[in-house]
Amino acid sequence: MSAGSTQPGNPRVVAAQLLRQLAAGRSISDLLERGLNEVAPRDRGLVKEFCFGVARWRPRLEKIAGELLSKPIKPKEGEVQALILLGLYQLIYMRVAPHAAVAETVEAARLLGKNWAVGLINALLRRFQRERDALLARADADPQGRYAVPGWLLKRLRNDWPRDWESILQAANSHPPMSLRVNLARTSREQYLAQLTAAGMAASPIPHVSAGLQLEQPVDAEALPGFAEGLVSVQDGGAQLAAGLLDLRDGQQVLDACAAPGGKSGHILESAAVELTAMDLDRRRLKRVQQNLDRLGVTATVVQGDSAKPQGAWAERQYDRILLDVPCSATGVIRRHPDIKLLRRAADIPALVKTQGQILRAVWPLLKPGGRLLYATCSLLSDENEGQVGRFLAQAPDARERALEADWGRTRKVGRQTLPGEATMDGFYYACLEKTGQP
Ligand SMILES: C[S@@+](CC[C@H](N)C(=O)[O-])C[C@H]1O[C@@H](n2cnc3c(N)ncnc32)[C@H](O)[C@@H]1O
Asked: Is 378 tagged catalytic?
């Protein structure tokens, strides 16, 4: 739909417009928030599938498109490039009848006023159909084409996970399950499972976490029984490990120093009657923390601040527990956010590592002697994880690791890591640090 029009848009046209903006650095979730309003409700699932699917497979689709084009599409023609990738995506990964996929994609070019590209897209997609097996075999011949992964990330994963990088990349391209956290302060996992079953939503317990359920089929969160009343939240099983690792006790002072959108803050408050300060740099995201806590019926001191430069009332206190769920590459959650492959650049990693180190060093003095700090990321990269915590331990004489003895994930030199897809979880890293001295 063109801007300002009130007619519902053609799903392929809208998807091409969104994919062009995605290539220019916007995130899928931001884009879909507004973009989905441009199509009829019945087409929303399709536009989502187009955007997520093309983002997931983009490096592979681009490799194939590159072989079929005699010269690259000009950067200013981002919608045409997006339609080519979308056409290939439908032909390779969707159950749309091939002739319909080609005809509808060509029609979208026409609707976008790209008449010059109509013949090109038609010929390219038809040639793909004729040469499909050979083109797919060539794309599969190297890991970048096979797993649709940018070169810099492939290099890092091979280095950090020499035995697991292929299964990690396979899992990163899979569709994630919808995982739930039952509010154990209000009900039990068994009782909530029974409510889901009665509502016709099949689910099963997630291993290693006491409140986790995995739905067989995703649904809108609002459709979950008791969602508005805070009986349940949507949260990956790996993320649900954090609250347990903090070993919370009633009455403790707890700081969640990178709290937004508040998933782990909510779980902390469901787990024990603690006094929580939920802090984040991003004011807009902090609103979501408050909304999440309101829905759960729990309270915290929600404050805006920079955990790399503690200042103000929250920084003048000391805490029994600190959760440091630092900003990271998010390479452990690519299956949920495939646009990460496109949005992250190799140069982002050293910058993130620097920020994480600053936050860790700045927040450490706020921990009481005898207190615990849980360092967490949804990254798979050792520089952000065991490398980061290892460097900190080497220069903080009052810090020692409290080893995580667990039956989930993999032991690292410091801390533990879940890998995407294992035990239904996303890829999370956790390291627990204790401050020496008497409480
Ligand atoms: C991985 S997310 C936290 C997710 C959250 N713990 C949850 O479970 O919902 C990282 C958060 O760190 C915040 N952040 C980034 N730099 C920060 C800083 N210097 N101080 C405080 N928060 C920061 C980001 O705004 C982002 O919300």
From this structure: yes
The Cα 359–Cα 166 span in angstroms is: 32
Class of CATH domain 11-148: mainly alpha
Per-residue pLDDT band for 4 (boundaries 50, 70, 90) equals: very low
Q: Is the domain covering 241-435 a CATH 3.40.50.150 domain?
A: yes
- Answer yes or no: pTM beyond 0.85: yes
Q: Is residue 26 predicted with pLDDT exceeding 90?
A: no
Return the pLDDT at 177.
96
The class of domain 178-228 in CATH terms is: alpha beta
* Ligand 1 neighbour 307 (Cβ under 6 A): yes
CA 264 to ligand 1: nearest atom:
8
pLDDT in tens, 288-316: 999 999 999 999 999 999 999 999 999 99
Please state, as a whole number, how many other Cβ atoms lie within 10 Å of the Cβ of residue 57: 22
- Please state, in angstroms and rounded to a whole number, the distance separating the CA atoms of residues 261 and 258: 9
Three-class SS of residue 396? coil
Domain residue spans of the chain? 11-148, 178-228, 241-435
Output the CA 259–ligand 1 centroid distance in Å.
Answer: 5
Ligand 1 centre from 329 Cα, in Å? 12
Q: From the annotation, which residues make up the binding site for S-adenosyl-L-methionine?
A: 258-264, 280, 306, 325
